[in-house]
Design a protein that fits this description.
The protein is mainly beta. The chain is 0% helix and 55% strand.
């Protein structure tokens, strides 16, 4: 299993066996799109508190 990622500033593209994910990350704000289509948003608040939400239903992976 080989995972490759390319980073340019706060943006990263990750290639994995499951697909491609895109991430935008700053010190206080994080947004990613997962290979299965979900979107994750996280915010870092003062005092070290992190709040996050995931949007969308991912594709189900069937093994068989």
């Amino acid at each position: 299993m080989k995972i490759n990622s390319i980073q340019a500033g706060p943006c990263r593209v990750t290639l994995s066996p499951h697909g491609v994910s895109y991430t935008f990350n700053t010190r206080k704000f994080y947004v990613t799109t997962t290979p299965d289509g979900r979107k994750q948003v996280k915010v870092r608040l003062p005092g070290g508190l992190k709040v996050g939400k995931t949007f969308g239903k991912g594709r189900s992976h069937r093994h068989g």
